[in-house]
Write a structure and sequence with these properties.
This protein has 145 residues and is an all-alpha fold. It has 5 helices and no strands. The longest helix is centred in the middle third of the chain and has 24 residues. The model has no long low-confidence stretch (mean pLDDT 81).
Length: 145
């Protein structure tokens, strides 16, 4: 799948904005603090956007289709699943919703049923433990946890 030509430009503007704000307002990467990670991530985003632009310029002469029907269907399913995740998060809670989200996304990608189930459950519980118990971030409890 090839991104639309406007997408790299928007990502580039976003990365430059975040980079400049994090350097000027928060000290950038020179000191550990609030600006360290945004500066690092936006710098990497700038690098990867430049690489993407170089590859796009190199392949400019070749004709590429934008989206196939299967990709459009998968994109629509992902949007619906994420919207359901957001809607049901307060009702069902983080663990159940994240488990369902990961499971459905893995099934869309074609992962086999047992592996998708095990990975989605394990990842949801690990993420919950790290954020709720170690970092003390309040996650929606819902009916589970």
């Amino acid at each position: 799948m090839r991104a639309l030509p406007l997408t790299p430009f928007i990502i580039l503007i976003f990365a430059i904005t975040i980079f400049s704000i994090s350097v000027t307002e928060y000290g950038g990467i020179g000191q550990h603090g609030a600006g360290f990670m945004p500066t690092l991530i936006s710098g990497l985003l700038l690098l990867f956007t430049a690489i993407d632009a170089a590859v796009d310029i190199k392949n400019r002469g070749q004709r590429q289709s934008l989206f196939s029907m299967a990709e459009c269907k998968a994109l629509a399913l992902i949007i619906i699943v994420v919207m359901l995740f957001v809607f049901l998060l307060d009702i069902l809670g983080f663990v159940i919703c994240s488990c369902l989200l990961l499971f459905i996304l893995m099934k869309i990608r074609g992962v086999k049923l047992p592996l998708a189930a095990v990975v989605s459950i394990a990842a949801s519980l690990i993420i919950y433990y790290v954020f709720a118990r170690v970092l003390l971030v309040a996650l929606p409890a819902g009916i589970g946890f």
